[in-house]
Amino acid sequence: MKPNGSDRSRPADRHVPFGLFSTPKMVPTTRSSDKTPSYNKLAPDERGRLNFKRRFALRLLLSVTSVIFAFSVVILMGAAVQDHRASKRPSTESYYQGAQVCGSTHAANFAAFQSAFEAHEKNALVVHCGDCGDCSTSGDISIYKKTRNSLTGTATSCATKVFTGGRSAVHSCFETDVGFTAECNDCWTDNVMCDLVNCAFTCTKSLFLGQQNNKGDTSLNACLFCDERMCGPQFIECAGANRRRCGIVSDIERNGAVEVCATVD
Fold this sequence. Notes:
Oligomer: single chain
Number of strands: 3
Mean pLDDT: 84
Shape: elongated
């Protein structure tokens, strides 16, 4: 007996994989209309509160961004003006090149002499170049020497307190963190107040940018340059002694040939 057509198409001795001719299972499909966002399931009052929070967060973000932008523009414009003014002021190198010196006798009395030669003739030691001032004391000069690599940072930290506590906060900071004599402390505090008037925008910009004291050489950063030109002369007239006049090399790079006193004993 010959096999019929169905037998030929499915030989008995041929292996048929399981499920080849079985009916495929129907996978239920999900219509897009069934994927309802959870937001639509909220009650109307809950939606209102959520919308309010979103609008508030967006407005707050825009407000903060606008304030930061406006603040930055003001700082940059103010710094540009103050930088320009400072660049027009003369250099202070002459304060370190004159013949006059401040000398100290063995009795620790400080006095001005027309030259180092005159000081030595009168048995006085040259403690710094230029005329004596309120910081021309053994205690203050000793502080200059001990803090040669840290005083700039400490002074900057004290200066920032002017924004929250005014002059008295700056004065107290120098008194506590540095320890100058009362008269010398006044000179340093007055210098900060001068910077507040003439260099506030420039120094704020320098602080935000994290500028180092020098720009790779003996060139000062914008804040120190502004302080040097706008307030340096007033400070030296008051203090008499500063680190460079005392021949002290500090954490601010200087041109030693013209900016650091070389006649100190």
